[in-house]
Structures are given as C-alpha cells and as structure tokens.
Amino acid sequence: MRNHNLYKDGFCFLPAVFSKNQAHSARDGLWEVINGHYETGRSPESRFWNIGDDPASIIKIDKPHLCNQAVWNLVTNAGLGKELARVTNANMIQVWHSQVVWKPKSKKNSGNAGWHRDAQYWPFWNTEGLYTAWIALSNVTIESGPVRFIVGSNHWATIDGLDFFNKDINSQDQVLDRSHSNRDTIDALLDIGEVSVHSSLTYHSSNANRNQGPRVGMVVHFCTDDAKRIMVTGENSDYLDQIEDQSIAPVIYKG
C-alpha cells in the first residue's frame, strides 16, 4: 500500500508524523469544537453539523484549527510541513483550509461520502500546487470506512455527476464505469498519527463506518509555491483574501 507516488498515482502515504499523544490531544480538541466549546474564542468558519443533529451523520466542521490550540498545533506542526514539502517538491507549504471529518458508526449509508475531486469545489484556485493531507486521529481499518483513492485519476478529464454529498455510491460507480471500468482503487488504511496526501484532482470517496467507535480524520488543505489564484466573481470573489492572514492560513514550511 505504501509504494504510491503522488504525481503518478495521485496520492501517497507519509511515515508516521504524529505521536499518539499529539493525535489524542488534537482529537480531544476537535471534540471540544464539535460540542461548541471554542478555547481560543474564535468560531469555526462553517458548521455542517450542529448539536442536536443526527448522531449517526458525518460531523464536518470547517477551519476548526481557529478554535483550539491543540488542533492549531497539529496543522502547523513543523515535521508535517517538512514532509509535505518533501513529497510535493515544494519551497513553501501554506495551510489555507482545514476540516474535521468525524464519522460515527453509520446507519445504512449515513457515513458515505461520494466520489469527488477536491478541485471541483475550489473555483478560486488553479489546479496546480494544491493538495490535501488527511491525518488519522483514530486507527483507520477497512471496517471504519477509509478514504478510497482511484489510482491515476489525477490525470483524468473531469467526470460530471460525481459529488461528495451524494451518498448513493453505487450509482456513482455506474457513472465511473462508463469511462473507467478497469480502475484500481486503494483504501487508505492508517494507524493513528499517520497521514495520506492526495492531489486536488484525485477522485476519492469513503463508505460507511461499521466499527463501534468513530473514524476521526483531520483534513488539511494546503498549497505550495506553484499554486495560482483565479479571480472569480460572486460569493467566492474575496474568499482567498484570507491567505494574507497567517492567523487563519499559516505558512508551515519555507525552504
């Protein structure tokens, strides 16, 4: 599983970056954020799950690193920055966005995340120099609904009809079959503290969590010195202005 190349395959796996203590501390911090306790006094950018919502649903909150020091420490870790620079061959790594994705034991398809590539949600970026690091804050087994990558899909043309929020993965598989029936899929099985990295163009998804405990991941969206901003109009026109503010979008490596 470990012998994958970020450029050829669209994803790779890092050596263990975080200790169990670091991972547990960040996980505890994320649980505080999920429950509405913001240690720093700053609120997250967006909440897609609120207290009282279905406890079997995926809990997704944007930019929790603003709210808790242990979470901030996780995403700004110097060792993480160095490893991300190594695998992307970059001179600069900047965290421009983050998410907690806390997946409780699923009911039916409540834990499904449909096939998608991250770039389809980022109209304000070009596709070069944009990646996602997925930090395991629990052991991720085949039963816990790991992220699944399609090998080499970062080189594909865009496929219409695929979406993170569509939980009917069987129907999405049929869409994929029309153009890529012989695709190879890899499950990101990770021990706590390990990290996967994928390109913004890599198609990925995940299935239900069948374990009793939650599958906990910290998603770190980062850019390198190759990233280029695209000027857009409408509601996202000023979204990337925040990259000038390192209290929101910290640079975690500079060569």
CATH class equals Mainly Beta
Enumerate how many helices there are, as a single number.
Answer: 5
Unreliably modeled segments: none
Which CATH architecture? Sandwich
Strand content: 15-25%
Instruction: Tell me the name of the CATH homologous superfamily.
Output: q2cbj1_9rhob like domain
Rg over CA atoms:
17 Å
Mean pLDDT: 95
Short description:
With 255 residues, the chain is an alpha+beta fold. The chain has 5 helices and 12 strands.
Can you tell me about this structure?
There is one protein chain. With 255 residues, the protein is an alpha+beta fold. It has a single domain (6-254), classed as q2cbj1_9rhob like domain (Jelly Rolls). The protein has helices at residues 6-9, 20-34, 69-75, 78-88, 169-179; strands at residues 11-13, 46-47, 59-62, 92-103, 113-116, 130-136, 147-150, 185-187, 195-199, 204-206, 215-224, 251-254. The strands form 2 sheets. Strands 1, 2, 3, 4, 6, 9, 11 and 12 form an 8-stranded antiparallel β-sheet that branches. It has a 4-stranded antiparallel β-sheet with strand order 5-10-7-8, covered by helices on one side. Helix 2 (20-34) crosses helix 3 (69-75). The chain is globular. The chain starts with 5 loop residues before the first helix and ends with a strand. The relative contact order is 0.25.
Per-chain topology:
Layout: H1 6-9, E1 11-13, H2 20-34, E2 46-47, E3 59-62, H3 69-75, H4 78-88, E4 92-103, E5 113-116, E6 130-136, E7 147-150, H5 169-179, E8 185-187, E9 195-199, E10 204-206, E11 215-224, E12 251-254
Antiparallel strand pairs: 1-9, 2-3, 3-4, 4-11, 4-12, 5-10, 6-9, 6-11, 7-8, 7-10
